[in-house]
UniProtKB/TrEMBL annotation:
Domain of life, source organism: Bacteria
Name by which UniProt lists this protein: Uncharacterized protein
Organism of origin: Pseudorhodobacter antarcticus
Length: 139
């Protein structure tokens, strides 16, 4: 189970680097870039494992609804023009809704196994790339 422990350590390192990536040193930015794919795959692995555990997935669906909005605001009367009331018109508002979606659990398990294999490959590459970043950009 050494691989699992190594993945945990790399995950902590990646998380720390992600927090520093926006304002980090050249070395930290290089390391964040070198471990980007691993971080993305970690999120996908977590999502897929959650889907398997739940037995279904969540999907986001774009929806819209039509609402009345003020198009022209009310204006007070002036010496040269009478007061005008606000004018209303209809406008579409868009929002995102999260819905459950049925999944094929067997396919999800195969996908998860493949992602874990790829994650191990990415970890080996990340270790090499992080060492290269440290050599290129010493602190």
């Amino acid at each position: 189970m050494v691989l699992g422990a190594d993945m945990g350590r790399l995950g902590l390192m990646v998380l720390g680097l992600a927090l520093l990536a926006g304002c980090g040193t050249p070395q930290e930015r290089c390391i964040a870039s070198a471990t980007r794919d691993a971080r993305i795959l970690d999120r996908l692995i977590t999502e897929t494992q959650g889907n398997i555990d739940r037995g279904f997935a969540y999907v986001e669906v774009q929806r819209s609804r039509t609402v009345w909005v003020v198009c022209v605001p009310a204006q007070a009367a002036t010496a040269t023009s009478p007061a005008q009331s606000a004018q209303m018109c209809m406008d579409d508002q868009y929002y995102t809704e999260t819905r459950p979606q049925a999944i094929n659990l067997a396919d999800e398990r195969v996908k998860l196994a493949e992602m874990r294999k790829k994650r191990a490959e990415l970890e080996r590459a990340a270790v090499r790339d992080v060492a290269s970043c440290k050599a290129q950009h010493p602190k």
